[in-house]
């Protein structure tokens, strides 16, 4: 029977209300009769009462399902023997052990939310994390119900020749009516969010990997036939990942086959379904002609991330969604370490921290701030955030810093051995590290419980008579929604001391008998304020604090520009060397902003110029690090450094500084560019990638000189290059220059690549971030272009997302046109794909940081969204929190 539902605000889910599942599913036999218009699912569940619970109603989650029938132990249930509504199926009075058969019908081609089973091009595929399995069949759709799945798929052999699911292929066959069938069995118990199914007309590229115990694993990548030449890099990355995980963590793969499928319509980057990873096509397909260095790098990282989940997420999974960072934070830290080992460790750390500071610090300072382990949520999809992933990774990294590499390996070995096949919590992870290392991390666990970015204040004092150097560290953390006061964190602070020649000095604390033997030592800050006193310090040092970014904090260290320039030139820690340069740039740029506001004459600091010149002239320095050190902070990051962000002044200041640097150092940029322009065949390796990054940075500075000849240089680079990295670098610079050459370059690029969806997204993106004043009009026009489909998340992210997040001077236009545009798109998207709509709202996360006029305009757009009837829970949760922000 149907239960009538009443309109109400979406329900809040609380960690404090967690209860163990009442009934467990020991085995799930799923039978799919596939069709894109109507798929029939027969689910046979072997269930029993959870020994840790008491008998009661048996409740199954369901969403957008047509229920056909229910059988309990072979007996068909009448309508009066169960209850069904839009979100659940409830069966009272079940025995302690029973078999249940549920038949449902679903409609993949109507599923624009891209959750559950949906249609994408020539594919039918699934996405079940976090709560998508309930769109396939009624089931206790929660991560702590671990089940052994056997899946039978039946479909038309011509339309769906390839049919895949988790685990190992057991049987397959043909029917006489043109249909065929396969049966897949996964011997490892898993939660429903890791279920996967794919069917379609796909090309398969195959390889093999021999594990450390001598087992041979078949590796397969499935793609649309036109993309069959784009699989090599992903396969290489997969084998590198498998080898690295064996060597570093001792983790071996456990099935006979590992499969990856590339899908064009996908809400996320990729999904780690057991043995059958489903990837956004943009995160797996690559050739030098169609993918940039960043794409190759990202694919390598994401392939590793999803593979590493086989242990940190699949074999050991999370008990509930509040523990999401248990798998995601840990696995991000693992994939970052993998990328650092294979490429430039310094550049990897800089990129990781740049992303954290730009996005996660803003999230921590905004209305959506939440702990790494949240206490509540309305829509779990909204908590796939940079806090869960990137800050979660930093928390795990700090644990590793505290116990050391060997101690961390002992701890993770214990964690995997102790909890294999279980659904556990962040407390279980920390307990394994504690037990393996005889360490107490009770205070440290506040990193999981408290939101906000701690602020670390540094003060120093030197006594030349006693030759003592005092380093005083003080911590604080601002209030966040629901957490007004914070307890002291346990913060590992990596420190080095440099003498006047830039050499590392000995570091012996007053209470120690011998000096510390190393360039960097980690101090544990556990109180509100602590002073660390170093003895036998022969001259006043410059302290290099938070080396390697040893904790995700905001550093308040009042160094002069001269001291920052010294660290930029001499610090032996590559990250801190870069960071000192960034802080020097920020100081100079904010001074220019102040001069613009006061209508003073603008000038660029000679000190900064001389330091940049020295970096550019340093032949011993890694070109990739040079490129990072010469890159100005983004306008968004500069805005975050101001009490009230002045969008227009920041844009003007940054453009002025870049032009002055470009003009002053033009001969050097020109010489470097020419020296790096020798033609050689594209290869993806750290050395060549570093050279291309510096070459393209030099070209961007040369273009900033406003010399018309530099546009010809951009065009020449686009014509002669053999790779998308250099081609796109030239096009990005062209789109900032009004005129016929720009339009010709854009038309020619599209005509050459319109058949390639991933490259077309790049074409959309470069136009979305153009500095020209008509950019919003162009974005609106592109939404009507044949290349754009609002139902495709990649198109939306490439055009709408790039404009709203990475073009601040036009998104934050004084007339509010950017905000109105975003509101219109969110309301459209919310009807199609609530997850994507909610993520687009992130562009308004920091709306309270702008001037009153812009705040009022942003508020009006938020109120327009909030006033819409039937908002999804995804958008409702975010917009109401934004409007409640003070």
Automatic annotation (TrEMBL):
Q: Which UniProt keywords apply?
A: Aminopeptidase, Hydrolase, Metal-binding, Metalloprotease, Protease, Zinc
The EC number(s) given in the record are 3.4.11.2
Cofactor dependency = Zn(2+)
The Peptidase M1 membrane alanine aminopeptidase domain covers 237-447
The GO biological-process annotations, alphabetized, read as: proteolysis
Top EC class, one word: hydrolase
Catalytic activity, per the record? Release of an N-terminal amino acid, Xaa-|-Yaa- from a peptide, amide or arylamide. Xaa is preferably Ala, but may be most amino acids including Pro (slow action). When a terminal hydrophobic residue is followed by a prolyl residue, the two may be released as an intact Xaa-Pro dipeptide
The UniProt entry, under Gene3D superfamilies, shows:
2.60.40.1840, 3.30.2010.30, Neutral Protease Domain 2, Peptidase M1, alanyl aminopeptidase, C-terminal domain, tricorn interacting facor f3 domain
Domain Peptidase M1 alanyl aminopeptidase C-terminal positions: 562-883
GO MF annotation list = alanyl aminopeptidase activity; metallopeptidase activity; zinc ion binding
Domain Peptidase M1 alanyl aminopeptidase Ig-like fold span(s) in chain numbering: 452-558
Where is the Aminopeptidase N-like N-terminal domain positioned along the sequence? 30-194
Cross-referenced CDD domains: M1_APN
Q: Which family does it belong to?
A: Belongs to the peptidase M1 family.
Its biological purpose is as follows: Aminopeptidase N is involved in the degradation of intracellular peptides generated by protein breakdown during normal growth as well as in response to nutrient starvation.
PANTHER family, per this entry? PUROMYCIN-SENSITIVE AMINOPEPTIDASE
Q: What is this protein called?
A: Aminopeptidase N
Question: What organism, scientifically named, is this protein from?
Answer: Methylophaga sulfidovorans
């Amino acid at each position: 029977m149907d239960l009538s539902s009443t309109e109400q605000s979406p329900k809040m889910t609380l960690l404090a209300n967690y209860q163990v599942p009442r009934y467990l599913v020991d085995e799930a036999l799923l039978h799919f009769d596939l069709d894109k218009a109507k798929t029939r699912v027969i689910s046979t569940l072997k269930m029993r009462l959870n020994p840790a619970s008491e008998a009661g109603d048996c409740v199954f989650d369901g969403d957008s399902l047509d229920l056909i029938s229910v059988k309990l132990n072979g007996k068909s249930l009448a309508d009066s023997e169960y209850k069904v509504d839009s979100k659940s199926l409830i069966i009272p009075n079940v025995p302690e052990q029973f078999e249940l058969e549920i038949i449902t019908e679903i409609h993949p081609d109507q599923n624009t939310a891209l959750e559950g089973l949906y249609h994408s091009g020539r594919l039918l595929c699934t996405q079940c994390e976090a709560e998508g399995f309930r769109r396939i069949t009624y089931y206790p759709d929660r991560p702590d119900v671990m089940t052994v799945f056997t899946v039978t798929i039946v479909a038309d052999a011509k339309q769906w020749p390839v049919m895949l699911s988790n685990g190992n292929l057991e049987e397959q066959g043909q029917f006489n009516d043109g249909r065929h069938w396969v049966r897949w069995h996964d011997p490892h118990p898993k939660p429903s969010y890791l279920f996967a199914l794919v069917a379609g007309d796909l090309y398969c590229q195959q390889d093999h990997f021999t594990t450390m115990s001598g087992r041979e694993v078949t590796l397969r990548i499935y793609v649309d036939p036109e993309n069959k030449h784009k699989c090599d890099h992903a396969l290489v990355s997969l084998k590198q990942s498998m080898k690295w995980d064996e060597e570093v963590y001792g983790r071996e793969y456990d099935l006979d086959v590992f499969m990856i499928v590339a899908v064009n319509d996908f809400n996320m980057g990729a999904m780690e379904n057991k043995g059958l990873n489903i990837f956004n096509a943009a995160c797996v397909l690559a050739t030098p002609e169609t993918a940039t260095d960043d794409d190759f790098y990202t694919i390598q990282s994401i392939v590793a991330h999803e593979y590493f989940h086989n242990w940190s997420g699949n074999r050991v999974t999370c008990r509930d969604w509040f523990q999401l960072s248990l798998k995601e934070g840990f696995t991000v830290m693992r994939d970052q370490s993998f990328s650092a080992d294979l490429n430039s460790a310094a550049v990897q750390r800089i990129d990781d921290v740049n992303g954290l500071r730009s996005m996660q610090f803003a999230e921590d300072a905004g209305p959506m701030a939440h702990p790494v382990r949240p206490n509540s949520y309305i829509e779990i999809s909204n908590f796939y955030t940079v806090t869960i992933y990137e800050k979660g990774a930093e928390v795990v990294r700090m644990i590793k810093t505290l116990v050391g590499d060997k101690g961390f390996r002992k701890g993770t070995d214990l964690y995997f051995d102790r909890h294999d096949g279980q659904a556990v919590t962040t407390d279980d992870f920390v307990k394994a590290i504690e037990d393996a290392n005889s360490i107490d991390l009770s205070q440290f666990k506040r990193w999981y419980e408290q939101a906000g970015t701690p602020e670390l204040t540094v003060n120093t004092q030197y006594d030349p008579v006693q030759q003592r150097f005092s380093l005083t560290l003080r911590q604080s953390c601002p209030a966040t929604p629901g957490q007004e006061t914070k307890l002291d964190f346990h913060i590992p602070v990596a420190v080095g001391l440099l003498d006047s020649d830039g050499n590392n000095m000995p570091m012996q604390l007053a209470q120690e008998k011998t000096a510390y033997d190393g360039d960097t030592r980690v101090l544990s800050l556990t109180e509100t304020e602590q002073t660390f006193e170093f003895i036998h310090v022969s001259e006043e040092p410059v302290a290099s604090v938070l080396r390697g970014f040893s904790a995700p904090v905001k550093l308040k260290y009042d160094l002069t520009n001269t001291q920052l320039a010294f660290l930029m030139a001499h610090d032996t820690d590559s990250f801190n060397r870069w960071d000192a340069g960034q802080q020097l740039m920020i100081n100079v740029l904010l001074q220019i902003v102040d001069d613009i506001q006061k209508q003073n004459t603008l000038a660029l600091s000679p000190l900064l110029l001389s330091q940049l010149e020295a970096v550019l002239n340093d032949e011993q320095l890694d070109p990739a690090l040079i490129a990072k050190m010469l890159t100005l902070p983004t306008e968004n990051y500069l805005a975050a450094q101001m009490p009230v962000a002045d969008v227009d002044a920041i844009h003007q200041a940054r453009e002025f500084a870049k032009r002055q640097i470009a003009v002053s150092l033009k001969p050097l940029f020109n010489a470097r560019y020419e020296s790096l322009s020798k033609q050689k065949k594209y290869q993806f390796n750290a050395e060549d990638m570093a050279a291309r990054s510096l070459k393209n940075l030099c070209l961007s500075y040369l273009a900033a000189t406003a010399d018309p000849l530099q546009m010809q240089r951009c065009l020449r680079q686009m014509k002669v290059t053999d790779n998308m990295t250099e081609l796109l670098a030239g096009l990005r610079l062209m789109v900032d220059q009004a005129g016929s050459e720009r339009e010709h370059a854009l038309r020619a690029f599209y005509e050459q690549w319109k058949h390639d969806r991933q490259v077309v997204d790049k074409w959309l993106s470069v136009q979305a971030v153009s500095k020209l004043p008509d950019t919003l009009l162009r974005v609106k026009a592109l939404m009507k272009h044949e290349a754009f489909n609002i139902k495709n998340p990649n198109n939306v992210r490439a055009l709408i997302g790039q404009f709203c997040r990475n073009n601040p001077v036009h998104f934050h236009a004084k007339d509010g046109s950017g905000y109105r545009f975003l509101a219109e798109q969110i309301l459209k998207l919310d009807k199609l794909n609530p997850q994507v709509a909610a993520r687009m709202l992130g562009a308004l996360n920091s709306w309270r940081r702008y001037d009153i006029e812009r705040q009022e305009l942003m508020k009006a757009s938020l109120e327009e969204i909030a006033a819409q009837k039937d908002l999804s829970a995804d958008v409702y949760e975010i917009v109401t929190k934004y409007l409640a922000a003070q």
